[in-house]
Sequence to fold (343 residues):
Amino acid sequence: MQKIYSRLQPVNLLLDVVVDDVRFIGIWGMGGIGKTTMVRAVYERISREFEFSFLLTDVRNFVEKSGLLNLQKQLLSGIWTKKANISDLHEGAMIIRRLFGDKKVLLILDDVNHSSHLEYLAGNPEWFGSWSRVLITTRNEHLLIGHGVERRLKVEELNDADSLQVFSRKAFKRVYPEGDFLGLSEYVISYAKGVPLALEVLGSFLHGRDLSEWRTTLRKLGRVCNLEIFDILKISYNDLDSEEKKIFLDIACFFNGQDKDRVTEVLNSCDFSVIIGIKVLMERSLLNLSDGRLWMHDFLREMGHEIVRLESPTEHGRCGRLWLLEDVKHVLTKNTVRNLVQE
Fold:
């Protein structure tokens, strides 16, 4: 828990709860990076300082299953004594504004993926009384920009020391690995590259297993995609349009670590709108730019490879992309290539 709180220091600076203005704070980053854990810790620490405190987790999933209107009703039920019989989103937004307008409110909206979530649940600073704080987590920075959220924080990967502690708490129920498992634990840390989701999933899976089971599991890392990690990361991919998906897969399979201008030139020749496509991938935490080169986190690249493999799990010649030399050789020598392969 101490490591979680150390990650909150930049958030605390943005919150600055001793200032009487109304603040919207956006926390963004790739799936599994720890955004929800961070805002839960914020809620536990400061919720008592507000007249009303609301933690709405998994907004995306709630809205998909039950609708945004029902989420408005859930929010209002925490402050309104009578049943919220609202008929449409505009009425709900008007009531939220009226009830919150003179209150000191802490509102946390976790995993927002559409502008309407912000429009009808949080509106603007005029909806809230002095000292109020609104925290929003998302995978998409552009949602925050479009809503005018100027205080934004990108959640970065954990360092190796913190990663080892997070992993150890799951794998050994203590802050440091057992002696015989230290080297293997360090291998997991190297593979996870600071993503808390991966550390927790792998730690939980390896808990209570013997050395031989650990070694067998670690041999699969990077070769067999972990479905729990894959499903969470793929949510970001599913939100892309068809052309953005193609650009993502091309970079994952062929262009990771390559010069941005060169990648842009090549993909432009495929009739893609590459400049805005790359920008969208960066805003959605699926791609980074460093020293003029495009980089994708290993887990995201692995996810991209798995998406392509699933196009034809048993016959690689039917996949739309081939990037491994042995697969290319097999397809060419066995003449198994199909029209799906892109040239």
Notes: The mean pLDDT is 88.
